[in-house]
Design brief:
This protein is mostly beta strands. Helix content is 11%, strand content 44%. This is Lectin.
Length: 192
């Protein structure tokens, strides 16, 4: 009986004193807590929005940087066939990051147009090497972009270091589609 009460008190103290905090890993800036950055592969398949602001014509997307975290983005286009939009035909590109937490949220900008850029989305998400979700959406065929779009979230991760991979496109899959990564947010819990 005493043991049970003790366990209950211990449990309540743990719940009462935990603090949950969100950390943003920007597409272009490291995790302020750990210094981890998002790794993009193949590196030359990705364009950085930071660079596009300086070098016109490098990026496919033309975004309102005021509506993006850090004013930056990373984009790449998947195309099953050889084209000017991608030097790696039929090769899905990946963005990978390590984080230590219990929840993860992936925010993208989505192109609404069907061409230039093709706003078809086909993303797959892996955590610790296991497939955990997809975001598939045909381009709505409108002008402009949607910002701050949550394409994946997971709030039931065991507290630990995890690796998230985002894969854009699938081999043999649908034609030219763009991914525009703005930021990844994760939550971690601590006992002050
Ligand atoms: C963390 O961010 C997510 C998504 O942006 C939000 O739903 C959640 O409430 C935030 N949690 C905290 C502790 O701020
Ligand atoms: C992960 O974060 C927790 C706090 O939530 C901390 O206690 C732990 O040491 C961290 N682990 C690593 C490997 O950094």
């Amino acid at each position: 009986m005493i043991a049970r009460q003790f366990i209950l008190l211990w449990y309540l103290s743990q719940v009462a004193y935990t603090i949950k905090t969100n950390i943003t890993i920007d597409d272009s800036f490291p995790d302020p807590r750990t210094g981890n950055s998002i790794i993009y592969n193949p590196p030359d398949a990705w364009n950085s929005g930071t660079f596009c602001q300086r070098g016109p014509g490098k990026c496919t997307a033309v975004l309102d940087t005021n509506r993006l975290s850090g004013g930056t983005w990373h984009e790449c286009t998947f195309n099953p066939v050889d084209s000017s939009s991608n030097d790696h035909p039929n090769t899905p590109s990946t963005a990978t990051v390590q984080f230590n937490g219990t929840a993860i949220y992936v925010y993208c900008a989505l192109a609404l147009t069907t061409s230039s850029p093709s706003g078809n989305s086909d993303m797959s998400f892996f955590i610790d090497g296991k497939p955990v979700g997809n975001f598939v959406r045909p381009a709505p065929n409108a002008l402009g972009y949607e910002y701050n779009f949550l394409v994946y979230s997971n709030e039931v991760l065991p507290p630990n270091v995890h690796e998230l991979s985002i894969i854009n496109g699938r081999a043999g899959g649908s034609k030219a589609l763009i991914i525009i990564i703005d930021r990844i947010v994760y939550s971690y819990v601590y006992w002050p």
